[in-house]
Amino acid sequence: MTSSTDRIENVVIVGSGPAGYTAALYTSRANLEPLVIEGFMWGGLLQQTTDVENYPGFPAGIMGPELMQQMRDQAERFGTRFITDEATKLELATEAGGVHKVWVGDEVHLARTVVLAMGAEHKKLGIPGEEELGGRGVSYCATCDAAFFRDRRTVIVGGGDSAMEEAIFLAKFSSEVVIVHRRAEFRASKIMLDRARATENITFLTPYAVDEFIPGEDGALAVAKLRNTEGGEDTQLEIDGAFIAIGHEPQSTIVEGQIDLDEEGYVKVDGRSTRTNRPGVFGAGDLVDNTYRQAITAAGSGCQAALDAEWYLRDTPSIETPPSLAEGDLAEQQWGPTESAAPVNLPH
């Protein structure tokens, strides 16, 4: 294990996407010189999105990867530094003013504050055609993409409240919405199920599982191959769009056991703030949000995390830096005075 530097960062942001890049923008403009460990697949779920029509400020819409590049460029303009690699381990201080440690492979970075913005991934069916037709008929967000399927036949795959909510929203655009669920009974609450059943252009197909998505001659989704989970017989459904609504997986494994998580694995924060149970550690974006999961709400919570981190740095005295990063390879290394990051300078 080696240290990349003896510098103690004011802010290390783990993750990217709207939350991470917004947190970087705000902290860099406050002269905190944030370090972003953005991952290999930087930009979050919007890197997998085509047209984004509901992000404010882009009346003609913008491609998801372009939006992420612009956010990244804006943060970089004010001094944000990036490591395009994965954080592999975190050791979070338990005392206010303590130094946190973030590993990237064998290198460790020290930080007075850490913003967690690792996001959440869509749960996938894992069937043939799903990956290949992503953005060409297969989607995971009706709020994002329903308008592209106006007067088209679509399916929702899932049986919980999220699936019902997606179906009801999608029904405002599609000519027909078919809810496909592998069981005859649903996990959705009675009120959500009743609302879906009361929507004229929503129908139900159970107990069926989707086994494959098949493209048409133009390369876009054309057919869903279905299997009856009780009888085993196959059938095919001609469709223009498929929305997968079987849940999300927050990317919180790296902090499990240190940060309080809810029963679904989302990071818990204190009230309307972004504070976690560890002092100087803040959570933002889809990592903490199992309700809205929109780019604009993620960006907003990234702003909150940045402000919470600034205020923590302003108000919390530092604890003396330990003489070594960890026992083992560095146990006998003698450290001189540590180089602190740029002084905190908060304009108000």
Automatic annotation (TrEMBL):
Keyword annotations from UniProtKB, A to Z: Disulfide bond, FAD, Flavoprotein, NADP, Oxidoreductase, Redox-active center
UniProt key word rRNA processing: no
TM segment ranges: none
InterPro entries with a match to the protein in the record: FAD/NAD-bd_sf, FAD/NAD-binding_dom, Ferredoxin-NADP_redctase_2, Pyr_nucl-diS_OxRdtase_2_AS, Thioredox_Rdtase
Gene3D superfamilies: FAD/NAD(P)-binding domain
Reaction equations catalysed: [thioredoxin]-dithiol + NADP(+) = [thioredoxin]-disulfide + NADPH + H(+)
Obligatory cofactor(s): FAD
Domain FAD/NAD(P)-binding: 10-302
Cofactor note: Binds 1 FAD per subunit.
EC numbers, comma separated: 1.8.1.9
GO molecular function, one term: thioredoxin-disulfide reductase (NADPH) activity
Family: Belongs to the class-II pyridine nucleotide-disulfide oxidoreductase family.
PANTHER family the record matches: THIOREDOXIN REDUCTASE 1-RELATED-RELATED
Assembly and oligomerization: Homodimer.
Protein name: Thioredoxin reductase
Lineage, highest ranks first: Bacteria, Bacillati, Actinomycetota, Thermoleophilia, Solirubrobacterales
